[in-house]
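Quick one, T. Sequence first:
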Amino acid sequence: MTNENRKSVFIQCPTCLKNGKIEIPRDKIEKKASGLSLIIVKKLICEHVFLAYIDKNFTMRESEEVYFVPSPQIIEKSKKIKEEFFDKNELDLINLNLYPLTLNYILKSLMNAKAIGIVLEERQDFLKTIYEKFLNFLFNNTFNTQYQIILDQEYSEAKEELNLPIIVKNIEIIKDNENFLTDVEFAVERGFIQKFYNDEYGLETLRALKFEINNAFLLAQSTKEFIENTKKLNLNKVIKFLEKEFNINIDVKYAEFLIGIVKNYYNVEVGNLYKNVEFMKFKKLSK
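C-alpha cells:
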C-alpha cells in the first residue's frame, strides 16, 4: 500500500497515557458512511493493546483498553433465559451503531441504578425502537432500569428539563452529575460484551450478553443478603462465600463490581468491605 493510501493519526494509550502517531489506511475511514471507526492498536506506541475511536477527520476521539475480567459461569441456579426474536438486520444495526464503549456506559449505569439518557443523531431515529427492544430484552426479569432514548434536537430543546444524572451521545459523556462514569474501570462490562462484538455476532451472542447480566443480578442479590447477615466483613469473606455457594471462581475485580451494585442498586452500606484488601487488587484470592 502506497503512502498516499495511508494517513498519520495521533493517538494516546488509555493505560499508560503515552502518545504518538500511527499510520492507518485512508479507505478504512473514508469509506465509512458516518460515525466513528474502531482501530485496534497492538503495541505500536507502547506495550499495550487498545481500541482507538477515529472520526472522519482522522482524529482520535477516545481510546479504550481491551483488558477484561472473566465472569464466573453459573449454570444450575441461573434462571432460564426466555428467548426473544431479533432479526439479523436489527442485530446488524445494533452492532454497527452502538459502540462498545457506549454500551459499557449504559450497562454500568443501569446495573447501578443510575438513570441514563442516550442521545441519537436525527438520522438515527429508526434506532430508538431497536435500542429499546435490545435493552428491555437484556434487563427483563433482573435489574429495574430507567433510561431515555432521545434525538439530538429533542435533547437540545429539553435538556434543562431532563431529570437524568447521566447522558451520553455515541462515546461522549455529555452529563455525569456524580462523576459516576469518570475514571472508573469497565473491565467487567467489557468482558460481558466481548462476544457480542466479535466477528460472528448474532442471536447466540445476544443470549450470552443477557446471560452475563442474569448472573450478575443473581450474584449481587446473594452478595447483598450475605453482607446484611454477616458481621466483621471483608472482601475475602464475600468472595469465599460466593465461591462456595455457587461452586465458582471469582476474580477480585468481579467481586468489587458486585459490591458496587450492592452499594448503588440496593443502597446497602459497604464501607468497611475494602478495609485491608488493597493488596488483593489485580490478583486472585487464595482459597
